[in-house]
Design brief:
27% strand; 9-stranded mixed β-sheet; Glutaconate Coenzyme A-transferase
Length: 235
């Protein structure tokens, strides 16, 4: 009999997956499509000395900001960290390590890790601090920097819809980073907004095939926050 990929809650979905010193990929873009329930479960577990790969680090008290508050993160591999005051405090105090990446480079490092590509060359960052300590080569008269593919012990991601096999669909901006992270970890756990019956997802609409997804949890509630509210001035 096949083992179900669907778990009762986020804590159960991560049971046996977490340990001190592990590397975790966390999907989403800003506060859109972040695996909030799974992050809260990681926080509650108490695991520490984590290396977290994520485009950004949430905001104070939300998303990965929770793990910063409890000092469970040792190192961040990120692109943008400007919305989190706690991050800045810990980094400036020498309590948190950061590996900055241009956003496209970070995405490609993750994609390459999922595709089994150990390294690649990119012109982004050549001649800047990004290139310091890295191998560079000339191609067609232009300098390129070698970047390493990224993999993780665990990927926690957020999807819009799934079937029991773990085939996933994402919605709008939530498609950023979640699909590529699903392929680049030893184990992938997805929180999803809805789980439908087999056959109710058009195969042409599937973004992440279920073979990449080990466990899932359906969200009973979903708090969609706005990172920066921008409105037009009323006249």
């Amino acid at each position: 009999m096949a083992v179900s990929k669907i778990y009762f809650d986020a804590v159960a979905a991560l049971s046996g997956m977490l340990r001190d010193g592990m590397t975790i990929m966390s999907g989403g873009f800003g506060l859109c499509g972040i695996p909030g329930a799974l992050i809260e479960a990681i926080c509650a577990s108490g695991v520490k000395d984590l290396t977290v790969i994520s485009n950004n680090v949430g905001i104070d008290g939300v998303g990965l900001g929770l793990l910063l508050e409890t000092r469970q993160i040792r190192k961040m591999i990120s692109s943008y960290v400007g919305e989190n005051a706690i991050f800045a405090q810990q980094y400036l105090a020498g309590e948190l390590e950061i590996e900055f990446n241009p956003q496209g480079t970070l995405a490609e490092r993750i994609r390459a890790g999922g595709a089994g590509v150990p390294a690649f060359y990119t012109a982004t960052g050549a001649g800047t601090q990004i290139a310091e300590g890295k191998e560079t080569k000339m191609f067609g008269g232009r300098a390129y920097v070698m970047e390493l593919g990224l993999r993780a012990d665990l990927a926690v991601i957020h999807a819009w819809k799934a079937d029991p096999e773990g085939n996933l669909i994402y919605r709008k901006t939530a498609r950023n980073f979640n699909p590529i992270m699903a392929t680049a970890a030893e184990v992938t756990v997805a929180e999803v907004e809805d789980i439908v019956l087999p056959g109710q997802i058009d195969p042409d609409h599937i973004v992440t095939p279920g073979i990449f997804v080990n466990r899932m949890v359906r969200l009973e509630t979903l708090d969609k926050r706005i990172e920066q509210r921008t409105v037009r001035k009323r006249y």
